């Protein structure tokens, strides 16, 4: 009797192993190429809203009258999956908003862990209203656009903006490297939990609130108001040689260095400087809890 029980147990174990092996063979993972595209009219569209995750998102302008988008790249998928159900890009209009997003069944964390998928969006050059981008674990590039308002909400990844203009720029960032080159705004507001901010040839009033960030800003030729509040990290600010401004810069754990001639007013120490450079037509206010502050002349 014991031999029979032992035989049955061994038989069951072998059957389980065999089933697992068969399932593994049936669920073989292979590479698939994604290539999906579409177009949308922007008639009466006030807001373009783009949502994505685990993607490379490229946004640029074109001479066409309609917005076009393309999702392309390679992903690893199980042969038992329906690729159309799993990964798809959709667009729809809701009132005056154009939404461009992945379908709800898309799980790119599983299928696109190497960020090989790209979403390319071409916006008509004549469109000048509002653009909103919301992403997680994505790399974003925005090039050559001119809009009324640009809103960015990004969690983990990178953000690069080049040769673009926006009356109002808003960026809410968490563990993101934010880089810009030749950006013009009337006003900008940025919040960052952790990451790096690097702005080159930046024009416009600027507010930054960050918990932990390395900040490097080179202003353009405009004379704008700058306000930075940072908990931890180095802050380097480069201003035009002819800049005129009222300065109030303070750090609790670090030093403040200023290359501009400044008659000291109220505060004069390694930890803080307050005064006026020629006139107070603009202001530079910097508070850093832990880290150095350097205010330098741009070459």
UniProtKB/TrEMBL annotation:
Domain DUF4097: 47-295
Pfam families, sorted: DUF4097
Alphabetical list of InterPro entries matching this protein: Toastrack_DUF4097
Protein name per the record: Putative adhesin
Source organism of this protein record: Clostridium grantii DSM 8605
């Amino acid at each position: 009797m014991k031999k029979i029980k032992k035989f049955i147990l061994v038989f069951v174990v072998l059957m389980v192993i065999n089933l697992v092996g068969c399932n593994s063979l049936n669920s073989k993972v292979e590479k698939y190429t994604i290539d999906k595209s579409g177009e949308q009219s922007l008639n009466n569209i006030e807001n373009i809203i783009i949502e994505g995750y685990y993607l490379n998102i490229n946004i640029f302008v074109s001479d066409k009258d309609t917005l076009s988008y393309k999702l392309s790249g390679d992903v690893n998928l199980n042969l038992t999956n329906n690729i159309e159900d799993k990964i798809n890009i959709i667009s729809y209009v809701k009132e005056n908003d154009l939404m461009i997003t992945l379908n709800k069944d898309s799980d790119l964390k599983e299928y696109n862990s190497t960020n090989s998928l790209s979403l390319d969006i071409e916006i008509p050059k004549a469109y000048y209203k509002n653009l909103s981008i919301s992403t997680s674990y994505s790399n974003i590039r925005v090039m050559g656009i001119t809009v009324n308002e640009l809103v960015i909400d990004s969690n983990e990844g990178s953000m690069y903006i080049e040769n673009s203009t926006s009356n109002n720029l808003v960026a809410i960032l968490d563990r993101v490297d934010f880089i810009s080159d030749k950006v013009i705004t009337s006003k900008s507001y940025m919040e960052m939990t952790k990451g790096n901010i690097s702005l080159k040839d930046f024009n416009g009033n600027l507010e930054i609130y960050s918990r932990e960030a390395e900040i490097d800003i080179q202003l353009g030729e405009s004379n704008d108001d700058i306000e930075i509040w940072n908990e931890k990290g180095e802050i380097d600010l480069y201003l035009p040689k002819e800049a005129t401004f009222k300065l109030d810069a303070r750090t609790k754990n670090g030093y403040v260095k200023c290359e501009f001639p400044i008659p000291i007013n109220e505060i004069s120490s390694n930890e803080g400087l307050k005064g006026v450079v020629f006139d107070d037509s603009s202001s530079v206010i910097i508070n850093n809890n832990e880290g150095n502050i350097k205010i330098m002349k741009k070459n």
